[in-house]
């Protein structure tokens, strides 16, 4: 994973487009997981600035209940995620496994974080503070139907003209967007 100099955060999408009158929502087709995954990945890329704002707001509100627990939890998850990225980027077998089985890798990463946090009861505040924003983001990304602007923006990201933080994160998790999808 190469971090290039032209990484930029996309603009905040208008509220009307995000959840308002222009937004179209529909339950995804659970029988077609590839198409559902494609919808989630594309919405994560297109609305990433909105998702960052919403998740940060929820995270801060949850952190206000117990700031020390939130700080410890944040540091712990950062260490686990950094270890996962380091291990999977430096060994070919793990790179191949991550690319071939992205769902297993993400589930393993979440399970490791859960196991560590479960060991330390203090971190329940962090679990709430991180899972609620993730749940909100994933529900929106699953239900929000794509529009023309979304599709064009994602094409630019997928061919590498413009790099975004969400594109880099999805690539690290083995969910990179392929050109033409």
Which descriptors apply to this entry?
mainly alpha, 181 residues, 0% strand, 9 helices
Describe the SSE topology.
Layout: H1 15-18, H2 33-46, H3 48-63, H4 67-90, H5 92-100, H6 102-119, H7 124-143, H8 148-158, H9 165-172
Helix pairs in contact: 2-7, 2-8, 3-7, 4-5, 4-6, 4-7, 5-6
**Can you summarize the main beta sheet?**
none
Q: List SSEs in N-to-C order.
A: HHHHHHHHH
Assign an overall shape: globular
Distance between the termini: 21 Å
Radius of gyration: 17 Å
Count of distinct strands: 0
Can you give the helix content as a percent range?
A: 55-70%
Helical segment tally?
9
What's the mean pLDDT score? 78
Oligomeric status: single chain
Q: Could you say which structural class the secondary elements and strand pairing correspond to? A: mainly alpha
Can you walk through the features of this model?
69% of the residues lie in helices and 0% in strands. The protein contains 9 helices and no strands. The protein has helices at 15-18, 33-46, 48-63, 67-90, 92-100, 102-119, 124-143, 148-158, 165-172. Helix 2 packs across helix 7 and helix 3 packs antiparallel against helix 7. It is globular.
In short:
The protein is mainly alpha-helical and 181 residues long. The protein has helices at residues 15-18, 33-46, 48-63, 67-90, 92-100, 102-119, 124-143, 148-158, 165-172.
